[in-house]
Amino acid sequence: MTGDELTVVVDRLRWDRRRDPYRGRREYSQAARQVAEECDRLVGEGRADLAVPVLRKAVDRITRALMYMDDSSGIVGDDLQELMGLYARACAAARPNPVSLAGWLVKLECDGPGWPRVMLADFVPALGERGIAEVQRLVAERARSTDPESWTGAFAVRDLREQLAEVSGDVDRYVAVLAEHLTNAVQYQRIVEALRAAGRRDEAVDWARRGVAADPGSPYTDRLRDLLVGMLVAAGDTPGAVRVRREDFARHPTAARYRSLIDTMGTAGGDDPTTWAMEVLRGQITVQPAYASELVDVLLAAGRDDEAWQEALHHRRWLGGPQWQTLLHRRAATHPKEVIQPYRDLVEQAILNSADKRRYRRAVALLTALRAVYQAAGEPTTFGRYLAELRIAHKRRPTFLKTLDAAGL
Fold first, then answer.
1. Which of 5, 151, 152, 156 could form a disulfide with 1, with the two C-beta atoms 3.0–4.6 Å apart?
2. Concatenated DSSP letters of 327-340
3. CA distances from 68 to 12, 22, 261 (A)
4. Which pTM was predicted?
5. Measured distance CA(397)–CA(269) in Å, rounded
6. Buried residues in 347-369 as b, exposed as e (16+ CB within 10 A)
């Protein structure tokens, strides 16, 4: 493709804000990918200097277009991020003016709409010391002038400061910058990973403990807790690793946390914690009965199916449909007669559930399972009589009867 032809393709990345935002996205994405392919070829052929201005223009145009285009699928956003990575590669090869590049990156991050993501590390080869120094100067200037009430402005400055500290290679500086904004476990995790990569395990463990203690209930803390346990096991502190898992389970006793505890004990060793976990859960149920579903799942995970069945019968109202069906399926393998009536109840509930458009198909699926249960119980003819009674009971539901006939039961 000649330079003129490439210019024509880049011109397709213009987007009139008056256009229908829901039309033309596929064609626009194809044009973006064509630009990427051609510029990638130019970089590979040693002509990155030709690709650099084209890619800059493409990034700017797509960035603006996404302000007026519906990209809920993220397709064009992905194209834009790919072009940013390609632009960084082209800049590393062609070495444009580092001061100008630094200014563009800071402006894009601080004044842009929030996309594309500026990955400073990708541009370090092109920026060099002079460019990095300019980024630092501009970021410091932004820090002084940004309205403290502007969340987007403050975030952009903080993000660039953290990236600058990371690319500096100075671990202490990086940790210090991250520690200025310890709002969630993600910041702690980044500190832990940096220290661990630097071989500073004891400090990493300390920061991980602090992060877990700061917000133990956050879903973001789960990954940090896994890192902490892994480091403790690697350091030979297996009792400490088990203690972290036990404390987590005691705080929020769930089947997922029980499995994590079991996995850790499988590596670290120790007594089976199932009895203790049952006591914790039963105590929790007295306060919050909804934890009965977790108790059932823990018993199933421990292979104590009979106990799980009894607890499920006792706490039936707290079990969801899928969980109850799992129990029925497992119980049917050993006690098929016990699950016949529960299955019939589920069929009836499904048929009468007017809020579910797929209720009849769900009912037929349950009937298929129920037929297998009757056969396992040695009562295949009884299922036929039940089916006939069901037809009579719901004779005013022709759609259900058609669905039943189509299933061939």
1. 5
2. HHHHHHTT-GGGGH
3. 15, 10, 49
4. 0.84
5. 58
6. beebbeeeeeeebbebbbebbeb
The whole-number mean pLDDT for each consecutive block of 10 residues of the chain, a chain of 409 residues, reads 76 93 94 96 95 96 96 96 98 97 97 95 98 98 86 91 97 97 95 98 98 93 97 94 96 96 86 92 96 96 94 94 93 95 94 90 94 94 94 93 90
Residue 112 one-letter amino acid? G
3-state helix, strand, coil in the chain (%, to 5): 75, 0, 25
25 closest CA partner among 79, 86, 81: 79
Non-local (6+) Cβ contacts of 231 within 8 A are 196, 201, 204, 205, 208
Look at phi and psi of residue 236 and say left if phi exceeds 0, alpha if psi is from -120 to 50, else beta.
Answer: left
Comparing C-alpha atoms, which of 314, 308, 403 is closest to residue 357?
403
**Distance between start and end Cα atoms, the chain:** 63
For 131-170, the DSSP string reads HHHHHHHHHHHHHHHS-TT-HHHHHHHHHHHHHHHHHTT-
Residues in the chain: 409
